[in-house]
């Protein structure tokens, strides 16, 4: 490191202390000599006095940054004036220290800048290894729904932290737990889900049908205005990756709920807006929603939300937008002011991530840039920071409007083809199927429900079954095995039963 200070002799004890800690320290008594040293050799960090004869420290700072643009520079000054502090922070100094300083204070600043990341990563690795042994000793089998939320949330955070730290080996070690986790989760849902939907007053998690009533309605009753944002197909890890972009705008409280089954848009998102299970929607609104394979399945979300609120005795104005293209996103950004012009609920659905996961199967370019879960998170971050969703949330923060952000279902990176046998009437979905005499060649890859009432789905007639994929499986027919394998292996799909698809974030954003 280089220490530039006109009182260099007085600071020799500080430099000796740093040398004892293993740092190579050179000194210069003025900015011109410091700049010359920077041109001649590489330094990792500069300690720069703010008040020196000749060139002022902040002017020297700008000169040094021109020589080495990304150099860490610590401003050391006798001045305690706020204006000097603000000017230094505005210039983006790496740290700001006020004299007099002890050698250990300087060491603390230097160690944080030069070794902080390595120290943090080493500590993270140690904590993970200790916790991993405990997780291995704990059984997924004994978890209730609260335990599943806690365990999945913890593993998701470890995954994010280890990837950020570049701990590739430990990340793979963590992900080695996932097959067993998904297998036990499927067994848990097979037992618990029919009980939840048959006894809504019993001990169960919040489900898709509860979100508007339990989380959105209290906001509007208290504040008269709320924004409800649904990001289609947003997994918990993707939410965690974009959440830091919002922390300067909002105080964020995140909890979780379980998607209804199947974890697919026609079912889970309609349940979100209607507060009803699919069989109840089909019975009450046969013209609005039916089990068809076309784009009209989610065409009445605004009406379903209005009907749900009316059923609760709340006649609240609703402004609704669904954003599925760049043109629609640009149009929303032009109308942000009018979106908050009156009391009521502003409901907005953003389909980008769902379109990305579907389009990835058809596009070699998308497949390459979103190869795995880590790449998908990074792509989600890049989209979000420049999206109409971020602009909408920023405007809500500026206007002091509380926001409820959630997803309708997640997705799973599918690598395992699972052969199924079915009659011609079976639906073509890759993670869930309806039809007569459905069965999976390997029962470990699917859950079979022979009674629609177990899932509160519309009745399909005698002999109709529901098959839901588990783990990272995707359904293939024996006659199209190679075609499906080459086309869909490695795709992000949804509709089945994994923590990634079922356990979803729901976040209350309170403007700062």
Explain what the structure shows.
The model has no long low-confidence stretch (mean pLDDT 91). The chain contains 21 helices and 19 strands. The longest helix has 35 residues, at 103-137. The two termini are 40 Å apart. A 6-stranded mixed sheet has the order 7-19-10-6-9-8, sandwiched between helices. Strands 2-1-3-4-5 form a 5-stranded parallel sheet, with helices on both faces. The radius of gyration is 28 Å and the shape is elongated. The chain has 4 domains: 2-112, 3-Layer(aba) Sandwich (Rossmann fold), CATH 3.40.50.2300; 117-185, no CATH class; 200-410 and 501-511, 3-Layer(aba) Sandwich (Alkaline Phosphatase, subunit A); 413-498, no CATH class. The relative contact order is 0.11. By secondary structure, it is an alpha/beta fold.
In short:
With 512 residues, the chain is an alpha/beta fold.
Distance between the termini: 40 Å
Low-pLDDT regions: none
What's the helix count?
21
Q: Which structural class fits the helix and strand makeup? A: alpha/beta
Task: Estimate nothing, just give the exact number of structural domains.
Answer: 4
Radius of gyration (Å): 28 Å
Annotate the secondary structure layout:
Blueprint: E1 2-4, H1 12-20, E2 26-28, H2 31-40, E3 45-49, H3 57-67, E4 72-77, H4 82-90, E5 95-98, H5 103-137, H6 145-164, H7 168-175, H8 178-198, H9 211-223, E6 225-231, H10 236-242, E7 250-258, H11 265-274, H12 278-284, H13 301-311, E8 318-323, H14 326-334, H15 336-339, E9 344-350, H16 352-360, H17 364-369, H18 373-385, H19 388-399, E10 403-406, E11 412-413, E12 416-421, E13 432-436, E14 439-440, E15 446-449, E16 464-469, E17 473-476, H20 481-488, E18 492-493, H21 499-502, E19 503-511
Parallel strand pairs: 1-2, 1-3, 3-4, 4-5, 6-9, 6-10, 8-9, 12-17
Antiparallel strand pairs: 7-19, 10-19, 11-18, 12-14, 13-16, 15-16
Helix pairs in contact: 1-5, 2-3, 6-7, 6-10, 10-18, 11-13, 14-19
